[in-house]
Design goal:
By secondary structure, the protein is of the alpha/beta class. It has a domain of about 170 residues: 3-Layer(aba) Sandwich (Rossmann fold), CATH 3.40.50. Helix content is about 35%, strand content about 25%. It has 9 helices and 10 strands. α6 links the parallel β7 and β8. α3 packs across α4, α3 runs parallel beside α5 and α4 packs across α5. The N and C termini lie far apart (about 40 Å).
Length: about 240
């Protein structure tokens, strides 16, 4: 049995002349939190789209939980156990919080009673119980981000891909979001998270993968990455490690 939940080999994605990802190779350990960072345009969301089946790789392979998922659709990948959030929350604003989470809960069952129970438990776990009956349209930014996580978590993922779930949050809201991510991880869920706030990345990640211009610039512990000369020059502001 592999100690890796995800293995990515030579992941390359080309869009009519534009090389968005090139030769990306990395793995994610079972129960690991991997931070994914890099400048805007580095190819982070493109990589997430490949991992979640939004589009297929031009070249390379993706193995999840021992199975080749390179050519599978988003629906198939979700059913296998990869949940994903989006940088811009994708909640259906005409539905309630509970109904939005119910969509995720229906990933593995057609039994509405079972799905409703799971959705309710997920809403409680994610701290949204007081808003369960409210329309998603009235939520503030932090609540929409949390709903995005709840809906993805309701699919019962083994691996959760979090795309900038901290963006737009206050310092207090970030602390609360970090706590939720840790609690999800404590349930045995592996996590890959795109995040621009380096303090957040350093505080929660076991390892950090740095992309630059679609390629891997560095991969290692938070300490190794922040002391890497190439990372400092390309991403951390030429010697300002705390930038």
């Amino acid at each position: 049995m592999s100690n890796y939940i995800l293995q990515v080999n030579d992941a390359t994605k080309k869009f009519s002349g534009l090389m968005a990802n090139e030769g990306i190779t990395f793995d994610v350990g079972v129960g690991e939190i991997l931070g994914l960072v890099g400048p805007n345009g580095a190819g982070k969301t493109t990589l997430f789209n490949s991992l979640s089946g939004v589009h297929q790789l031009t070249r390379g392979t993706i193995t999840f939980d021992g199975q080749d998922i390179t050519k599978l659709s988003s629906h198939q990948i979700c059913k296998l156990g990869i949940g994903r959030t989006f940088q811009i929350p994708q909640a259906i604003v005409t539905l309630s919080v509970e109904e939005n989470v119910l969509i995720g809960a229906l990933c593995h069952t057609n039994n509405m009673k079972v799905a409703r129970k799971h959705a309710h438990e997920t809403i409680e776990f994610c701290g949204l119980a007081a808003l369960a009956d409210k329309p998603a349209a009235i939520l503030n930014v932090a609540q929409k981000k949390r709903l995005e996580i709840a809906r993805a978590y309701a699919t019962d993922p083994k691996l959760l891909l979090l795309d900038e779930t901290m963006a737009g949050l206050t310092a207090t809201e970030r602390v609360e979001s970090i706590q939720l991510i840790r609690e999800i991880n404590n349930q045995g869920v592996s996590i890959v998270m795109i995040e621009h706030n380096m303090d957040v990345v350093m505080s929660v990640s076991n390892r950090v993968l740095v992309l630059d211009a679609g390629k891997v610039l560095a991969l290692g512990s938070p300490e190794e990455v922040t002391s890497n000369e190439a990372v400092i020059n390309a991403y951390l502001g030429g010697g300002k490690k705390d930038a």
